Structures are given as C-alpha cells and as structure tokens.
Amino acid sequence: MELSTVRRVVGYVKRHRAATLGQTKDLGAKYTMADSDGAVVRAEVQLAPMQVPKASDVLADDLRERILRGDFPEGTALPHERELVAQTGMSRTTVREALRILEVQGLVTMRTGRAGGAFAQRPGKESVANSVGLLIRGRQIRIPALLETREAIEPHCAQLAATYRTRADLDALERANDAIAVDTGSLADFLQANVDWHVGVAVASHNELLTGFMMALSRAIYASTNTQGFIDAEVRRTTIHSHRTITDAIRDQDPEAAVRRMQRHVHTYAEAVLKVEERSAVTVPGS
C-alpha cells in the first residue's frame, strides 16, 4: 500500500502559500506607489489566517476511507506502526494519534502482543448506539422527547420483525419474556430483561440503523425513569402481557397486529411514566 498523505499535506500548504503570496503581490502592485519625494507608500492589507489541517487528521481521513471502501476488509491488520511511518514520512506520534482517532470512531481495534496492532472493523449497531447515546447525554435530552422518539420508531421495528424474524430472534424474545416473568427477580433484573426484549424486537427487524437507535433509546429511557416510583406488581403484569402478545404477532408474522399492539404498549407506558415524572418533580419556590 502506498500512502500519498504527506505529499497531499505538503502540496496543500504550498498551494495555499502560493495563493497567499500571489494575493500579496497583486495587492502590492495595486496599492504600492511612490510619492513625489520618491518614498514608498504602502496600503494596509489584512491577510486571512491559513487553515492547514493537522497531519494526523489527514492520515486518519485517508485510512478511514480505505477501511470503509474495503481496501482493509474487516478483521485484517493495518500496516504496523513502523511501516506507516516509513510509507507516509510522518512521525510516530502523528501515526499513533491517527490510529487513536480511528479507534475512538470504532473503525479499528487495537490488540497487544506479538500478533498485535491495529485491525480494521466496520461500524455496526453499537457504533450507532454509542453516537446516539452521546447525543442524548450531551444535549441532555429529557424523557418526554425520548418517549416520543420511541413511539415513532418502535412500532415500525415490530412491523419489520414480524416480516423478517428468524427462529433465533424468537428464541431471544422468549428468553427475555421468561426473565421478565420471574416473580422473585430484582428490579434491576426486570429492567435489564425489559431492555433485552425491546432491543430484541429491533434486532429481529434486521435493520442495523433501527437497532442502534433502539439500543440507545432503551438504555436512556430506563436510566432516566424514576423506576422506584413506577415499577410495581401491576406494571410487571401489564408488561409481561403486552410483551407476550406482541411476541405472538411477530411469531405469527402478522405485521399489522405487531404494529397495533406495540403502538398501544409504548403509548401506555409513556403516559404512565410521564404521570410519575410529574408527581416526582420538585417545584422550586419562586420559579
């Protein structure tokens, strides 16, 4: 593999400098003149700052594009650090920084040891979930917006699941249903089984983008809900019943029933959660 990254960076800088110098010369020719005494009069010209990309960003961009278009199939090793240094002419620090950028983006995984190095990986549903999760946390998106989004997305997941589900998908949903139905289970066990079931419906849709969204939404919703004030025996019974009827529609490959039942389930849940949130809200005097 030949990487032309350094030449591109150097070429960019040269072209930018040449353009800037050309602008300066033009401006000089236009505004430089001599007065009657022969003294040079110069106009004040404000030049714009040059924006030159970091070498590590350019290298990361080059490697990212190669991974995404399949030059490095998933699971294959990128050239060793020393090879990248030799091929690009960049410093070891720059190469390491570029690899760290790709690792954070989920495009390479780093392994240690004699057979270690950077290995290509394609972004999947976890990448979507992590990005959406960061957006939810970073923007501090509140529970009403999360519930609205789930009502818009999850019924369609159920519809697709009823169309494309496999035997393995049904087994995963049944395992989650069995875990939810355990009377002696802790609240944490119930919530985890609940998340597993909702994510299982999305997985059964066989749409990685929807699955990633639902993974992030389900985690955020249950992390944001006042579960101690909401989850009681009646809620557990209602949840078990709703999940089983939706699972039945998915098993029977009945998309219309799956959509209808999921819409009712998530809407009822959203209404109940918001009522609890309103009761739990603390009113600040004078606000």
Question: In terms of quaternary structure, what is this?
Answer: single chain
Could you give the order of strands across the largest sheet? Answer: 1-2
Shape: elongated
What amount of the residues lies in strands? under 5%
Number of helices: 11
Helix content: 55-70%
How large, in whole angstroms, is the Cα Rg?
29 Å
Identify low-pLDDT runs: 20-31, 281-287
Counted beta strands: 4
Series of H and E elements: HEEHHHEEHHHHHHH
Q: If you consult CATH, what is the topology of the largest domain?
A: Four Helix Bundle (Hemerythrin (Met), subunit A)
CATH class category of the largest domain: Mainly Alpha
How far is the first residue's CA from the last residue's CA?
Answer: 64 Å
Please indicate the count of domains: 2
Provide the residue-averaged pLDDT. Answer: 85
Q: What's the CATH architecture name of the largest domain?
A: Up-down Bundle
CATH superfamily of the largest domain: GntR ligand-binding domain-like
